[in-house]
């Protein structure tokens, strides 16, 4: 495989340490990449896969992992839990994969995580973010490389709590695992921080709903100062575009997951104000070091667009696994997981990340800011972005244990 002309400094440093030769040889290290290439997750999944592909290219250009070439074995979950579990099982049983990653939907994540536990394969999450994988459904082969759904919702609640003129809030979400988890976590934390705020009954819509009109009407019925929306992708684009025809942004504010792919999709149709976004790895708000700059340049050269949060997470997940395998001196599952627990990871989205073995959660940050139109970019970005420290958003081990006990 030909090396790229420009390889990110961190990728080169990690990959060079993994092998002494310039070319990987021997048995391929297969990574099972189960993701929603069709269904509601399709655009997100493609971006994550693109980031992972660049990581594999960088690793193989510098010798692979422990001298072995890395191979992505990609399967489509169709954004369905039963299909995702089926594909993960086939990869584990027939393909000899040594790591699982790529899952988008939180419901699919839980299905794939059960397979990873059964076959004792490291499962490195990088898009799907349900807290259940850390708590009730946790297994010792799970690593969450981004802020989980609860951490992200806590960050949003802390941001909203500072808006002292906001007195009424209506939560909204997709009617599945991630949507309910996010709404519940946001509501509970906001009540703690601002007991004076009136929080209406949540409004739920099916995943990927195109006709958001009835749900916008329901959300505005309480005359909220802000709507917290746990939606993404095409459903979020529909919410924002249709919301304008309902006067949503004259009547209220919107706080929602707002990753780079949605900003790109909205373009000039994005409202100029009253939209606040939660980001997972927005490239324009990250520390602009040499590694990130090189990745952005490489990504644009490969795909003719700026990298989304999902692309950065896909790249980081592969590199974190590579670093853990190097530290372990083995791709065997138990040594790799021990290395995850004992290492510090420098990624594109943050430096000095660590994984807590009690729940597999990395102390990855969350980002919240307000929509901005910067002439440096051909799509809206965010300004006044606040970075919320991941460690401060994580449940304590005592709280997690109590939740696990209650779920038995």
Primary descriptors:
five-stranded parallel β-sheet, alpha/beta, 15 helices, 408 residues, 16 strands, Rossmann fold, globular, 2 domains, disordered N terminus, 44% helix
**Beta strands, count:** 16
CATH architecture classification name of the largest domain: 3-Layer(aba) Sandwich
User: Which value, in Å, is the CA radius of gyration?
Assistant: 20 Å
Give the class from helix and strand content and strand pairing: alpha/beta
The coarse silhouette is globular
Number of helices: 15
What is the CATH fold-level name of the largest domain? Rossmann fold
Helical residues, percent: 40-55%
Mean pLDDT: 93
Oligomer: single chain
What low-confidence regions span 5 or more consecutive residues with pLDDT below 50?
1-23
CATH class bucket of the largest domain: Alpha Beta
How many structural domains does the protein architecture include? 2
């Amino acid at each position: 495989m030909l090396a790229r002309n420009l390889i990110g400094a961190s990728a080169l440093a990690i990959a060079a340490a993994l092998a002494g030769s310039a070319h990987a040889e021997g048995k391929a290290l297969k990574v099972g990449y189960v993701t929603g290439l069709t269904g509601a997750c399709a655009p997100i999944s493609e971006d994550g896969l693109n980031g992972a592909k660049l990581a594999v290219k960088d690793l193989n250009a510098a010798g692979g992992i422990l001298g072995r070439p890395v191979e992505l074995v990609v399967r489509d979950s169709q954004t369905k839990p039963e299909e995702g579990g089926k594909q993960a099982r086939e990869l584990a049983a027939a393909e000899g994969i040594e790591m699982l990653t790529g899952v988008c939907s939180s419901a699919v994540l839980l299905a794939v995580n059960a397979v990873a536990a059964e076959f004792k394969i490291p499962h490195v999450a990088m898009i799907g973010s349900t807290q259940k994988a850390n708590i009730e459904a946790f297994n010792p082969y799970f690593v969450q490389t981004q802020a989980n759904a609860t951490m992200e919702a806590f960050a949003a609640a802390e941001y909203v709590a500072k808006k002292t003129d906001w007195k009424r809030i209506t939560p909204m979400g997709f009617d599945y695992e991630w949507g309910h988890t996010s709404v519940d976590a946001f509501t509970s934390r906001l009540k703690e921080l601002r007991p004076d705020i009136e929080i209406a009954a949540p409004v739920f819509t099916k995943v990927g709903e195109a006709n958001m009109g009835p749900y916008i009407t329901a959300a505005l019925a309480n005359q909220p100062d802000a709507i917290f929306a746990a939606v993404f992708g095409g459903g979020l684009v529909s919410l924002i575009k249709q919301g304008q025809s309902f006067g949503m942004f004259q009547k209220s504010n919107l706080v929602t997951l707002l990753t780079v792919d949605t900003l790109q999709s909205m373009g000039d149709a994005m409202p100029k104000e009253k939209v606040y976004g939660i980001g997972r790895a927005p490239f324009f708000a990250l520390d602009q070091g040499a590694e990130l700059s090189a990745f952005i340049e490489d990504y644009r050269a490969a795909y003719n667009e700026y990298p989304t949060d999902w692309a950065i997470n896909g790249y980081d997940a592969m590199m974190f696994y590579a670093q853990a395998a190097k530290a372990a001196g083995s791709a065997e599952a138990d040594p790799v997981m021990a290395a995850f627990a004992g290492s510090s990871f420098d990624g594109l989205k943050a430096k000095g990340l660590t994984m807590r073995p009690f729940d597999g959660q990395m102390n990855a940050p969350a980002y919240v800011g307000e929509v901005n139109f910067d002439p440096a970019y051909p799509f809206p970005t965010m300004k006044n972005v606040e970075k919320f420290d991941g460690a401060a958003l994580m449940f304590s081990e005592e709280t997690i244990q109590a939740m696990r006990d209650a779920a038995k």
